[in-house]
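Supplementary Text 2. Reproducibility record for the structural model of the 436-residue chain.

All settings were left at their defaults, and a single model was retained for analysis rather than an ensemble. We include the record here because the model underlies the residue-level annotations in Supplementary Table 4.
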Amino acid sequence: MLFPETFLWGAASAATQVEGAWDEDGKCPSIWDVAEGHIKNGDTTHMACDHYHRYKEDVALMKSLGLRSYRFSVNWCRIQPEPGVVNEKGIGFYKDLVAELKKAGIKPLLTLYHWDLPLWAQEEGGWASPKIVDWFLDYCQVVVDALSDEVDCWMTFNEPLCFLDLGYAMGMHAPFLTDESLFRKAARHMLLAHGRVVSMIRERAKTTPSIGIAMAASTLIPEDESPEGIKAAAKESFEAPFGERGNSLYMDPICRGKASPTMKDLLSEEDLALISAPIDFIGLNVYQPANVWLGEERYDKSAFPQTMMGWVIDPRCLYWTIRHYWDRYQLPLMVTENGMAAEDTVSSDGAVHDPVRVQFLDGFLSQVGRALQENIPVLGYQHWSVMDNFEWCEGYGPRFGLIYVDYKTQRRFLKDSALHYAHLIRTRGADLKTGR
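Retained model, structure tokens:
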């Protein structure tokens, strides 16, 4: 099949993971800039890919691949070094980046929050503080006022599951807390902030906006594709005890105006009316099926290849996440992250050969093609990631990029997978086989 002409073939990044320049031009520290002791090998955010200084080179590489879109995030710490104070140099960087993207014919897809909470906000309680909703709204207004003449695609948050559940309940991500009561407060404040920001964008944007949210959306592959098997997998994917925390805890209030069991006592009808301000699409970040947490008797992980981080490569999970989210929420969808970590190296011939990622692209994009053939509205695919980068607590070991980054010299190399992706873009996926 041919993918639609309007399909957004792209790639993604996040500010903290690529920008570096952690203390330059008026930027304040984030909770990830001061995460010493939690990151492998003593790695830090401080240099990353130096995208802050090399964005023109990076956009030129994106253009050479034929990318139609680029999903990136704005770092709150560049915009507001303290509450209510606007850093014009920070705004200027993102204006310049957006202008460079537009000049290259690449559509900017802007995420307002990808985990880089200012340290000043965390010192007041972070997402568990009721002050955070007003602070976040104020920051987002600054960004929308500055960029909405050139940006029309907005995502409020990236993966609430990770920065809330892993950050406040499980101690695995910054701010590294293990307090269920703080998690529930933080989740409520995030949902309220989302609703208020959606309404604000509708009111203030200078161009007609398309608004969504990017979810860590892992669902179950059915044990069989009978109607009963599909229904059972969908139910388990979204309902307690298995699927609520990752999927419906956030999406049911946002898309249905209904609180999940975990949040029922915290969300009033007035809250839900605010939270469910209509959005235009749902972003899906998909890496492996939720089946991996069911146990070996229900899903044999050894039957599938795995990435260097131990994540199962089973392309079917992308189709089924798209399908389950479409069936439940009936909103257009965009694959906002999908990719794999590897220990890539530059070969003696000066190239980076990553055949597993080439196969990964074919397998997962074929599953997007299957969804499109079934008339599910998938708007685009943003590969994670555009370049190797800082992988949070894993540091710089795992390489997810289409572009290899030598962190010592900051030299970039196009991997074989980047060239293959460019071919898929040029041919609109004509060579992909779309099957089960």
